[in-house]
Amino acid sequence: MKTPDIPANEPQRLASLYESGLLDTGAQERFDRLTRLAKRMFGVPIALVSLVDANRLHFKSCDGLEPGPVDRDISFCGHAILRDTPLVVNDAEKDPTFSDNPLVVGEPYLRFYAGYPLRLPDGASVGSFCLIDRQPRAFSESETAVLKDFAAIVEDEFAVISSTTTDELTGLFNRRGFHNLGKFAITAARRRAEPLTLAWLDLDRFKQINDTWGHEEGDHALRALADLLRATFREADLLVRYGGDEFAVLFSDTDEKGAWVAMDHLADQAKAWNKTSQKPWKLAFSWGVSEYNHDNGDDIKSWMKTADERMYTMKANRAKERFEE
Fold first, then answer.
1. Each residue of 51-75: pLDDT tens digit?
2. What is the pTM of this model?
3. Sign of the CA dihedral 82, 156, 48, 211?
4. Among the four given CATH numbers 3.30.450.40, 3.90.180.10, 3.30.420.10, 3.90.550.10, the one describing domain 10-163
5. How are the residues of the chain apportioned to helix, strand and coil, as percentages rounded to the nearest 5?
6. What's CA 48's distance to the chain center, in Å?
């Protein structure tokens, strides 16, 4: 088995994928409609819209197959993103690249694959629209042209999603909104000689909520924290769901000490919420704060890294305290 090569522009490709917001929205009906239609038109049992991150596949739609984790190293889509033309494998058992692939010799016993690479508006190849069959089959030029049309529709949807600055689940700004507005906030604070402080938040035991009570409860926890952020902080503060269970608050005209006091108040609000909540889980989070250094002119990424490291220090200390109790 040949593992997919890593594109020469992999850092830029991943940055485009992460900043697009596509990984934060999960599977979506807009893509499910397309995969259902593709299955009927091509007469295949499986149709997918996949995204390829650093290590595995993410499915925006997965019709005909359980959407479990697939490692990038064994994926066909990892090969598809390397191409400008569709990857068509008529019989995987006879193809030296894939004949001993775990997806061929075991479930889902893949024999036929046709994947058209999917690109973001900036040209980054981030995934594929793919058709899969458990039987070998031919694939004509006219079928290839139709598959290209499906991929074009998906790319149009990607452009819509990646251009938005709002997180669908919580209504807060998303990763793209943070980067766009954060640059403006730095420029404005520097011009007015005002402090600007970033708080980085991470929900505690979020994986446990998902694993124990299901992803619907996990979504409720994310929305509950977003509601607390809106109720606690000023309209002038930038509230962000950066991705997964990571949140950020950009405090305008606030130094590091003031931001820490504000975050302590948010923690008190979470404790009050827990007392009245009927949920079986508790809403809790760890945080770190970092004031922007106007003299050094740090970029957003290095500023984020400092706040993130301080947040993880708090999280590690809390985990140690729970272990010692």
1. 999 999 999 999 998 877 899 999 9
2. 0.68
3. positive
4. 3.30.450.40
5. 50, 20, 30
6. 17
